[in-house]
Every structure is written in structure tokens, then in C-alpha cells.
Write a structure and sequence with these properties.
Largest sheet: 2 strands, antiparallel
CATH superfamily of the domain at 86-190: Cytochrome c-like domain
Strand content: under 5%
CATH architecture of the domain at 86-190: Orthogonal Bundle
Order of helices and strands: HHEEHHHHH
Oligomer: single chain
Number of strands: 2
């Protein structure tokens, strides 16, 4: 019983002490916008550090991020060697080939899915250029089985990468592998080649200029 009474006294004394302290701290004039006493203010007001800049914190000079070494290639990324120019377009048509030729059957199916997501609205389900959006453009996309029937795979890839005419670049939406899968399906829509010549070819001789996409 005595022990229980002692516990009650301790709790009561603690509560009373807390109320008295609250009373003292609430009296007097103070800034209404002040948050009061802050414990570990560095956690509330940490220094703002900008990327790739040198900073001095508590007398210590720090580099919070460093630029990659010139020529660094991100893991899993392959630089694209053809520039976004007429010359680059022609060179891609001559020299750029699908590196996944042995996986055409499987990748063509993946390409069909990608086509349905990114291309059908302009190019149409059969690649005839009669998509719901394409029909409203000033110049509808040419048909794959028509004017673009003999378009080489390199030019198809180049066009997906950079865009051409009313078509914008898709390099930010599609990885290089996905673009090659899409090339397989576009070639299916083109059908069998009827001629050895490329109807889009221009008389251009160019040197390949490295570009990054």
C-alpha cells in the first residue's frame, strides 16, 4: 500500500512540475513565428548543396558529385554513331543493320506490341498511314507497303531514333533494343521487297559523325 502511495506521489509531482515549466515558458513576449527550442537544428536546416559543385562545410571542402570521365559510356548503353543529318540518314541506310537478326521471330512479336503502343495512332494498324492521328496531319505518313516498301532497316531505326517530318524522336521512350524490335515489325508490314533500290535514297556521300541516342 505504501509503495502504491509513493508511486502516486511521484506521478503527481512530475505532472505538477511539467505544468509549472509550461507556465514559465509560455509567459512573456516572444516571436509568434518562432518554432521554440529546436533540438539538432542541423536536421531542420541542412545546407543546400548543388550537384557538381565544390562546397565548404565546417571548414572542410567537399565535392558532393563528380562529373564522369570524358568518353564514359553508361552501362548497358550503346552510343549511336549516326548524326541527325541527311548524310547521317543515308549512311544509316547503307551501313546500319539489325544486330538481332537471329531473333527475328520472337522480337517481331514484341515489336508488334510496341507498334500498338507508339505507332498505330499515326501509321495505322496495317502501316498504311491511315491512323486516327496521322489522317489529321498536313502530310499523312507514307504507307510501309507503298512508298516506304524498300526503306532499309538502318533508315527505319534512324527515323525512330531522331524522328523525320511530322514524326518526333522516340529515343527517350524506346531503348535501342526496343527500336530494333519495332524495326522487325515494320519490315513485316512492308512485305516482301519488290526492288533492290531504296526510293528514299538521296545522292549523298558522308562521313559518320558520332552522336548519342
Amino acid at each position: 500500500m505504501k509503495k502504491h502511495y509513493t508511486t502516486i506521489k511521484f506521478v503527481f509531482a512530475s505532472a505538477l512540475t511539467g505544468l509549472v515549466m509550461m507556465g514559465f515558458t509560455s509567459c512573456g513576449k516572444r516571436d509568434q513565428n518562432s518554432p521554440g527550442i529546436e533540438f539538432m537544428p542541423d536536421m531542420y536546416r541542412s545546407p543546400s548543396l548543388e550537384y557538381y559543385q565544390t562546397h565548404t562545410v565546417d571548414g572542410v571542402t567537399l565535392d558532393n558529385a563528380m562529373l564522369p570521365v570524358a568518353g564514359t559510356v553508361a552501362r548497358g548503353y550503346l552510343p549511336y554513331a549516326y548524326a541527325n543529318t541527311t548524310e547521317g540518314y543515308e549512311q544509316a541506310g547503307l551501313n546500319l543493320h539489325n544486330p538481332y537478326g537471329s531473333q527475328r521471330e520472337a522480337f517481331e512479336k514484341d515489336g508488334e506490341v510496341l507498334y500498338g503502343k507508339f505507332c498505330v495512332h499515326c501509321h495505322g494498324a496495317t502501316g498504311a498511314g491511315d491512323g486516327k492521328v496521322g489522317g489529321k496531319l498536313p502530310g499523312p505518313p507514307p504507307a510501309y507497303a507503298g512508298a516506304l516498301k524498300n526503306l532499309p532497316e538502318g533508315k527505319i531505326f534512324h527515323t525512330i531514333t531522331y524522328g523525320k517530318g511530322s514524326m518526333g524522336s522516340h529515343s527517350s521512350q524506346l531503348t535501342q533494343l526496343e527500336r530494333w524490335k519495332l524495326v522487325f515489325y515494320v519490315q513485316k508490314l512492308q512485305g516482301p521487297k519488290e526492288a533492290a533500290t531504296d526510293s528514299t535514297k538521296a545522292a549523298v556521300t558522308a562521313t559518320v559523325t558520332p552522336a548519342h541516342h
